[in-house]
Specification:
The protein is 58% helix and 0% strand. It has helices at 5-27, 35-41, 43-46, 54-59, 68-73, 76-85, 100-111. The protein binds heme C.
């Protein structure tokens, strides 16, 4: 049986699309600023994409989820302030661990979890 021409064209288009995606992701391989600092300092409590793991939710009942609603209420500056000063008993100050620039980068990076750019 011969391959149906329409199917063949669709298959070729799909293959082309896949290779374009691969190419695009290779070009943007560079990690966003703030990602490494987040993974090293925050992920354990706040989760890979800002959703705290159940164990952390259980341990720290006030721990927030970094979603659009969170960022509507918290500006980038307010996040940096929390990183400098800490909050409550368990959200420690990071002023001796991170530079000012790293705090700004982390504050920007966590906003990407919600797709918020504000
Ligand atoms: C030991 C666990 C832990 C680690 C590590 C941690 N956090 Fe938190 N974080 C918390 C808890 C608990 C709260 C809730 C504090 C409260 O409201 O009392 C919190 C709250 C926050 C808030 C919300 C503050 C607000 O204004 O309500 C932000 C933003 C935040 N953390 C960012 C970070 C970032 C960025 C890092 C890494 C540099 C980090 N956290 C590391 C436990 C942690």
């Amino acid at each position: 049986m011969k391959a149906h021409p329409v199917i063949a064209v669709v298959a070729m288009a799909a293959a082309a699309a896949v290779s374009t995606i691969k190419f695009a992701s290779a070009a943007t391989m560079q990690e966003p600023a703030g990602k490494t600092a987040y993974e090293e300092n925050c992920r354990k409590c706040h989760g890979v994409r800002g959703v705290p793991p159940k164990t952390m939710k259980a341990k720290y009942e006030k721990i927030p989820t970094f979603n659009a609603a969170f960022f509507d209420a918290h500006s980038e500056d307010s996040v940096v302030k929390v990183l400098i000063k800490g909050k409550g008993e368990n959200m420690k100050s990071f002023k001796t661990k991170l530079t000012q620039q790293e705090m700004v980068d982390v504050a920007k990076y966590i906003r990407s979890f919600a797709g918020a750019e504000k």
